[in-house]
Structure to design on (156 residues):
């Protein structure tokens, strides 16, 4: 099985190096209270620092609205030292959902993992709409909420 092709909807572009501030802003875009937003920003930065100390780095993939250059979607791979990556933090701004952007971000992460020869894992959340697609692109494991799915390393 090969890597999926990436087909972004018209008006969007892929960004493989979004800024941390933009990532945090998008992850917590539904948090309107400034104090809570600052709390989550600090917490996210601290989590990143803890991951770095544990030898885990992140590859971030974003999607931008071409007209405004706003970051409207994000997905990451948490890279561990043993050539295993965990898919993390996939989110699309509510105003841009249901256009295939989440799938494009997933495809970009899978393609990059294949290019690097990295195996992938992901944990299914409750009622994950992408569960069937994970199976189609090579993830194996029980398709139940909370299950850990795995995709063996491939090379392109």
């Amino acid at each position: 099985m090969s890597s999926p092709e990436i087909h972004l909807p018209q008006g969007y572009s892929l960004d493989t190096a979004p800024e941390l501030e933009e990532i945090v802003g998008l992850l917590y875009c539904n948090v309107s209270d400034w104090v809570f937003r600052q709390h989550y920003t600090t917490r996210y930065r601290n989590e990143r620092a803890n991951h770095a100390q544990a030898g885990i780095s992140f590859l971030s993939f974003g999607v931008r609205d071409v007209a405004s250059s706003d970051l409207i979607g994000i997905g990451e791979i948490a890279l561990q030292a043993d050539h295993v990556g965990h898919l993390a933090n996939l989110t699309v701004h509510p105003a841009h959902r249901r256009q295939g952007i989440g799938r494009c971000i997933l495809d970009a992460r899978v393609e990059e993992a294949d290019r690097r020869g990295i195996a992938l894992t992901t944990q299914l959340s409750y009622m994950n709409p992408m569960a069937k697609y994970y199976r189609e692109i090579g993830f194996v494991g029980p398709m139940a909420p909370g299950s850990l799915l795995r995709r063996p390393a491939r090379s392109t």
Notes: The beta strands are 12-15, 57-65, 71-79, 84-92, 119-123, 148-151.
